[in-house]
Amino acid sequence: MTKPLTACHIKNFPKVSIIGAGNVGKTLAQRIVEHNLADVCLLDIVEGLPQGIALDLMEARGLELHTRKVVGTNDYQDTANSDVIVITAGIARKPGMNREDLLKINGKIVTEAAQKCVNYSPNALYLVITNPLDVMTYLVWKTTDLATSKVVGMAGVLDSARLQAFIAMELGVSFNDVQGMVLGGHGDLMLPLPRYCTVSGIPITELMDESTINRLVQRTRDGGAEIVKLLKTGSAFYAPASSAYYMIESVLLNQSRLLPAAVYLQGEYGLNDIFLGVPCRLGYCGVEQVLEINLTTKEIDALQESARSVRDNIDLALTQLTINN
Ligand code: APR
Hints:
alpha/beta; L-2-Hydroxyisocaproate Dehydrogenase, Chain A, domain 2; 2 domains; globular; binds adenosine-5-diphosphoribose
């Protein structure tokens, strides 16, 4: 009789734990395993939800022909030894809920999740997705002893991807040929930089008139809201998941991609003690470099205005959560 096969576990595949198995979390899990990038641990507060999604994804594994494993859990122990922790847990702003309420609720969720994860994965890179993004990223860093290079917020890649898509659609060119750059906080005051947006190396300022560019810039600023309005319930998740995947790939494959992300600033652009979207390089060690690119006076002013708004919300969140500043 043929001997029964036994499972053979090869160690040392990268591991990504995703906190929050909602739309962004589960779509990101799917992207990661289907690209064969890493094993995934999906954690949620709702019992059965991450387990059900993980099982569903595992049942698709043979058809999608990938070899990565997904587990679903409600227990932080299962996130142990992750290379990357992604935090998407939180609630969406509901009618009647003000900015303070959202800061307090999501601030509590995010900081508790980060603190629990740090116990089991102290060396991981922490990628924050929960909104309001820049503030949540700051709180993760502030309430843990993680190095600034190990905490990063996902927004610039998403905002840039949206701008790139609008440029490609406007010009009818290949999406692959468009590069965009959006700095600042992930909100109304974000700073798309047309001078640094190109199609195959040609600045878009050579390809479009000013009013068209302004229209695309405004559409980028309203990018999240446009989708919320169309969906009626919930918010965007495909492009956010793809943006997070792009960043995680740069980390796990040590690609040192140069991309915009919310990183800790210590004097760059005249800003201190804040997480804000600027260009950086992301590799296995985390944020390897924060780049200071040339900005006009008008652009610097806009970046500082965006920073002031983020800073106000950070201060409010610190007070709400009684965290010492
Ligand atoms: N611990 C773990 N998971 C939690 C917790 C918690 N304390 N609180 C909420 N969650 C889970 C919810 O149960 C839900 O499954 O977080 C998940 C959030 O999922 P969605 O509501 O579907 O939100 P999603 O669209 O995935 O967006 C997540 O990303 O883009 C941002 O603004 C968006 O902050 C939001 C986040």
